[in-house]
Design a protein that fits this description.
Layout lengths: L2 H9 L3 E7 L3 H12 L4 E4 L15 E2 L11 H17 L4 E11 L6 H14 L8 E3 L1 H7 L8 E12 L3 H14 L3 E3 L2 E8 L4 E7 L5 E11 L5 H7 L6 E14 L8 E6 L5 E7 L2 E5 L3 E3 L8 H12 L15 E12 L17 E6 L4 E6 L5 H14 L17 H13 L14 H9 L2 H11 L6 E3 L4 E2 H10 L5 H8 L2 H4 L2 H5 L3 H10 L3 H9 L7 H5 L9
Parallel strand pairs: 1-2, 1-10, 2-7, 4-12, 10-18
Antiparallel strand pairs: 3-6, 4-6, 5-6, 8-9, 9-10, 11-14, 11-15, 11-16, 12-13, 13-14, 17-18, 19-20
Amino acid sequence: MSLRETHLDRLRHGTFDTLVVGGGINGAVTAASLAGRGANVALIDRGDFAHFTSQASSNLVWGGFKYLENYELYLVFKLCRSRNRLMAAYPENIKQIGFYAALDEQGPYQPWFAALGALAYWIIGLFGLKRPRLLSADQIESEEPAIDTTGVAGGIEYYDGILVDNDARFVFSFVRSAIEAGATATNYVELVSAEFDGEKWDARLRCVDSGEEFTTTASTIVNAAGPFVDELNNEWGLTTEHRIVYSKGIHLVVPRLTTKHHHKVLAFYDDTERLFYVIPMGRRSVIGTTDTRVDTPYTEVDDADIDFLLDQINARLDLDSPLTRADIIAERCGVRPLVVESSGTDQTEVDWAKLSRKHAVEVDRRRRVVTIFGGKLTDCLNVGEEVAAEVESLGIPLEEDLHNWYGEPAKATRDEFFRQARLMKLDDRREKPETEPLSGRLWRRYGRRAFAMLEAIRQDPTMAEDIMGSADYLRVELHSAAESEMITKLEDFMRRRSKIDLVVADADIHGSAGLREVAEILFGADADRRLAEYFGGDDRIPAAIRAASAADHTHN
């Protein structure tokens, strides 16, 4: 029985302390926090984990430098503290990175004033990262020739954090932590209805993949549905002090724009005087984000979005040739669920520029529901702790918080893994340019599970081979993912457990015969159906993938 089937079986007619609805960052961290403190938790999402807002972030772990513009000093302080905690707990997954901001002569802030803000940001952040510096236009031109310094008055460099892998994979690490602590967690399970009988919730659930419906029972519910929290609360007849409004943000993934060894985030003010960035993602650059008010959580990238970002970046970088639509490798689009007070305003009255990514946690004690409004990845540990406190206040007994429900394994465990990797000369097994050593990558992505991967490679050296040449994924990683990452659809792996869909051009994916082996490892006899689902129909599976078969795989 697969991991997902095992957890579905637990859900059927199960009884839990808490049912968490929504598997984005808020739901995942809540499940990890509660399970880590001994609660019997169930986590569900009607799509894949992190499939909505949580897969469309900038991959940054930051304290909110731009919130200083609106003097939200306490919010910045809280976010910086949370950033520092996350970076200390996940040293391999979150790295310090410089934000390199070029400021125009006609921009909203002069360099000296921005430098004062950067200094204040560093101080508010308790000196947790490198000290900021003031840059002259000549320094910018010398240090990053990709920036067009025409009209640039100078700039600043300050520091925050960045996820080495993608946001959705980081979210899934909390799902894994919850599962390891005893939680039941399943993707593609929809909440059909929920009724409160005065003591407990009877929830009717549906497996989206098979259509099966069943019931489960929980003493409390956590509404972690992100952009859909209001919709759920309305269904249950709950009245809340807060509600959500939506802001659409997009990113464009393009070939790397910055100098090869300049691993920094470039920051600019666009023509509307909003910050946007060029963010490194391996051999790619990510341009964004936009900020457009919308009245629905369902959004997509449109022509105006693309034209705006291309125009902005072409005006600020000194490229050999301007970026065009042909350079776009992938698009990212999502809504930010922004928190406002429920009373007295409609969406058109909200001052969009002043809304921050703060969160609010509310509890309905009579109905035993905790709702999480808003939030961002950086603040996730605070969310997990606050929700656990509210659940405990509803009568669910929790163990002492030892803060062991998050973070990477201990340094001694890490050192032992790298010792074993050196003995078997793991990093000598590949010579691909511009790729990190295998040992570091496997440890960062899998932690303790990487030990089993070493053993699998010892037993069968072909396990250390790339399956898709341009995707940089090993055969052993696919086998591990099939066993332990609850991958239900091919998109789950291509877009969320990995970032292949974000950094590999469609033409390379469509021409990769190895994708069939990926599907066969992940789904076995169901591979053809999942390939057809991924490409939008059996007749749309590319010829190179259709022609490949198990007989083509060489495991010698």
